[in-house]
Amino acid sequence: MTERSMQEPTLLLLTALADAPRHGYALIQEIAAISDGRVKMRTGTLYGALDRLLQQGLIEVAAEEVVDGRARRSYALTDAGRTALATEAERLRAVATEAERRLANVRLAMQAGPKGLFTRRGFFA
Fold it and tell me: Under 8 Å CB-to-CB from 43, ≥6 apart: which residues?
């Protein structure tokens, strides 16, 4: 049985931590940048996900400090987190490659004209 694909918030969080440890607010900013502004993670969602990833051993607390009277934790990927991110990146790469291959087949079939596009069963000729 194969593992489930990673949910987008998890993928974005692990990606945001791939190159450097970050604290919560920096993670929110980094996720917005990675997603080109498409994903704006809310604080409650972020900290719930961070707690879950900590329990799963995919991230760890890299540092704790007090800034302006408030505790600030920085998070970093663990080796397991790096492995999980690399595995998911490879899975996504394989799916994207297959999608591109199939789209290229459609383009070629369309260039061949309407008779080259589909057979009676609806598959490529």
Answer: 24, 28
